[in-house]
Design brief:
Strand order of the largest sheet: 6-5-4-3-2-1-8-7
Helix content: under 10%
Radius of gyration: 14 Å
Strand content: over 45%
Number of domains: 1
Largest sheet: 8 strands, antiparallel
Number of helices: 0
Distance between the termini: 12 Å
Length: 115
């Protein structure tokens, strides 16, 4: 079953120490993507009763890489599990704030196309 959120997205990201860009695919309650720094995004989403989407996502960064939050990943890289709500009007917002273990990230999602 397809959802109205399904599509290809450009994610413009900013943190305390920098900016980033990722491409994400939302398809049939799955999320996958990557960015130019080698970070891999893998997760799932579901619609909630409170007019939002519940996001659960693993973010895997490669070894010895600086992050937009201002830390350096270690020699084994780093993996974070994020759980957050994405408001249903996220495309109309300037950004969505996502709290991570390494600090906040502001994400502006732009839908590139439906699938």
């Amino acid at each position: 079953m397809s959802s109205k959120i399904d599509g290809v997205y450009a994610a413009y990201l900013s943190g305390l120490a920098g900016q980033g860009f990722a491409m994400l695919l939302f398809d049939e309650q799955k999320i996958s993507g990557a960015d130019s720094g080698g970070v891999i995004y893998d997760g799932e989403y579901s619609e909630t009763d409170n007019d939002s989407y519940s996001i659960k996502m693993d973010v895997k960064a490669p070894p010895n890489t600086p992050t937009i939050q201002g830390i350096m990943t270690g020699p084994r890289g780093e993996e974070n599990h994020l759980v957050f709500d994405l408001p249903s009007d996220f495309l109309k917002r300037d950004f969505v704030r996502i709290e991570t273990g390494n600090g906040a990230v502001n994400a502006k999602l732009v839908k590139v196309r439906d699938i």
